[in-house]
Amino acid sequence: MTSKWLLSAALAATTLALANPAAAATKFEFWYGLSGDLSERIQDMCKDFNASQADYEIVCVSQDNYDANLQNTIAAYRANKQPTISQIFDAGTLDLMLSQAYVPIGQLMTENGYDIDWSNYFSGIASYYSTSKGELLSMPFNSSTAMIYYNTDALAKVGFEGLPTTWSEVEDVARKMKAAGYDCPIGFDPAGAWQWYEQFSAIHNQPIASKGNGFSGLDAEMQAGKGLFVQQLTWIKKMYDEGLMVLKSKDTGEVDLDAFAAGKCQIFSGSIAGHGTVTAKAIPDLHWDVAMLPMLDGVTRTNSLVGGASLWTLKGKSPEEYKGAAAFYNFLATPKQTQWWSTVTGYIPVTNTGFEAMKAAGFYDAAPYKGRERAIESLTFTPPTENSRGIRLGNYASIRAEMVKTMQNVLFNNEPVQQALDEFDAKGNDILRRFQATYKDAVLP
Amino acid sequence: MERRAYYRNGGLPWLLIAPQLLLVLVFFYWPTSQALYWAFTLEQPWGGGNSWVGWDNFVGIFRDKEYWGTVVRSAFYASCTTGLSMAMALTLAVFVDRALKGTRLFQSVYVWPYAIAAPAAGVAFRFIFAPESGLVGSINQMWPGIWNPAINGYQALGMIIVCHSWLGIGYNFIFFLAALQMIPRSISEAGAMDGARPFRRMLDLQLPLIAPTVFFLLIINLISSFTDSFGLIDTMTEGGPFGSTEVMVYKIYFDGFKGLDYSGAAAQSIILMLLVMALTFVQFKWVEKRVHYH
Question: What residues does each domain of chain B span?
Answer without folding.
Answer: 59-290
